[in-house]
Amino acid sequence: MPNISDIKVGQVLRSEFDQITRELLQKYAKSSGDTNPIHTNDAIAERAGLKGVIAHGLFSSGFIIKMLDDFVGKSGKLIELDIEMRGMVRVGDILITEGTVTKIESNRVYLDIKQTTITPVEIKKDGNVVKKFEAGERGYISEKDIARNLIKTKEVDEGTLTYRERVAAPGHAIIELNK
């Protein structure tokens, strides 16, 4: 449980989730009551113009709320959360949620929120594809992603990983801590 005096402007809260699967999205659909098949059925998602199922918006925003709730614990509460859902979250994505403290007034902490998706595409070694992820198989990467410089590479144990990194949900939050 944080003490307001221990929080500093510029401090970053961070969480990462890398287990987005079809089974998890199906469980979420069932428990939330949102059974729109674009979240659970690839064929229907494709007929809707998508390249495969996408996570529910509230599924991914739930990770923002969880990060903030884990931070404040029983010593505070979430006062405001305002986010824009700009990018789809897909099976196989790594979901990184960050909150950067921008201001502290009395017992209120103001944060800029940024939720980013890391979408692995493929791993190459010596010019050959040694592993292809769903994003590569289904063509999730667009010319627009390339033009916006969202495609990146990094060295991993198996070779060179190509992935897309994009902000899926920017926003801000206010939390209040008990004195």
Provide a descriptive summary of the structure in words.
The termini are close together. Strands 1, 2, 3, 4, 5, 6 and 7 form a seven-stranded antiparallel beta sheet that branches. The longest helix is centred in the middle third of the chain and has 16 residues, at 57-72. The relative contact order is 0.21. The protein has one domain: Hotdog Thioesterase (Thiol Ester Dehydrase, Chain A). The mean pLDDT is 95. It has helices at residues 22-32, 42-47, 57-72, 134-138, 143-147; strands at 12-17, 76-83, 94-105, 108-125, 128-132, 151-156, 159-177. Helices cover 24% and strands 41% of the residues. A hairpin with a 2-residue loop joins strand 3 and strand 4.
Brief synopsis:
This protein has 179 residues and is an alpha+beta fold. Helix content is 24%, strand content 41%.
What share of the residues does DSSP label as strand, in percent?
Answer: 35-45%
Mean pLDDT: 95
Rounded to an integer in angstroms, the radius of gyration calculated over CA atoms is 18 Å
Shape: globular
Q: List low-pLDDT spans.
A: none
CATH domain fold name: Thiol Ester Dehydrase, Chain A
Beta strand count? 7
Helices and strands, with pairings:
Layout: E1 12-17, H1 22-32, H2 42-47, H3 57-72, E2 76-83, E3 94-105, E4 108-125, E5 128-132, H4 134-138, H5 143-147, E6 151-156, E7 159-177
Antiparallel strand pairs: 1-3, 2-7, 3-4, 4-5, 4-7, 6-7
Essential attributes:
Thiol Ester Dehydrase, Chain A; globular; 41% strand; alpha+beta; seven-stranded antiparallel β-sheet
